[in-house]
Amino acid sequence: NPSKTEIIWFGSRSSLSKMEGIELALHVGNDVIEPTSCVRDLGVFLDCELSMKQHIGKVASACFYHLRRLRQVRRILGEAVVARLVSAFILSRLDYCNSVLANLPKKTIEPLQRVQNAAARLVKNLGPRDHVSSALRELHWLPVQYRITYKLCLLMHLIHIGRSPSYLANLVTATSNIPARCDKGLRSTTSHSYEHAATRLKFGERCFTFAGPSAWNSLPTSLQSETNTKTFKRKLKTNLFTAAFPS
């Protein structure tokens, strides 16, 4: 359906600049589909440089819209009900497909953290200038950066116990399955760690083949060896919460 079809070229800014003046449109019969700078796939907005800034901006905009609506009824509903509504309308949006935001610069993710901070102030009925760290701790909400790590580790856990789709499991390799390491009898072959892809660029660290194993390998061995998903999720959140809010 040409009216619903979009085409986009991905690349670095320098690579895309080299394509100026080249015919990049897609010809389908008598229809011509011109390239666009941003497309939407499963609710995730992908720009041509994969900076994710447009996606983050749209998520933040939608969240602040719902926060303004909830603020109008904050006094009527009370803290407990507002917390549930924030979880449904705000936190669910922050967590949706957030693994694609792995290893993005802190400045890029900052709008999502501002959303979470505003949500915590709303639930706790704080002023705009009040510190929010204690509210996040009391609500037991992981900051956005740690929520991304949580998602990566959960995906790696499902891969580790054999409950993930094959297309995801095939992206990573357990250290114990690398023949070269097994032949040398290295200690790493008996661990639960995974090899991450080699990359020369900071951009490459955002790939799941690098970000997933890196997040997983940072976990303690006792957590990596946990096979019960429910228990793993509980212990994982405790581990990340301790790292986010050290006592």
Mean pLDDT: 90
**How does the helix and strand content classify structurally?**
mainly alpha
Overall 3D shape: globular
Task: Give the strand order, joined by hyphens, for the main sheet.
Answer: 1-2
> What is the overall number of helices?
12
Distance between the termini: 57 Å
Count of individual beta strands = 6
Could you spell the SSE succession in H and E letters?
A: HEEEEHHHHHHHEHEHHH
Helix content: 40-55%
Q: Major β-sheet, in short? A: 2 strands, antiparallel
Low-confidence stretches: none
Radius of gyration: 21 Å
Portion of residues in beta strands equals 5-15%
Describe the structure.
The protein has 247 residues and is mainly alpha-helical. Helix content is 52%, strand content 7%. The strands form three sheets. A two-stranded antiparallel sheet has the order 1-2. Strand 3 and strand 4 form a beta hairpin. The mean pLDDT is 90.
Features:
single chain; 247 residues; mainly alpha; two-stranded antiparallel ribbon; two-stranded antiparallel sheet; globular
Per-chain topology:
Elements lengths: L12 H5 L8 E3 L2 E3 L4 E4 L2 E4 L5 H19 L2 H4 L1 H17 L10 H19 L8 H7 L4 H17 L5 H4 L3 E2 L4 H6 L9 E2 L12 H10 L3 H4 L4 H16 L3
Antiparallel strand pairs: 1-2, 3-4, 5-6
Helix pairs in contact: 2-4, 2-5, 4-5, 5-6, 7-10, 7-12
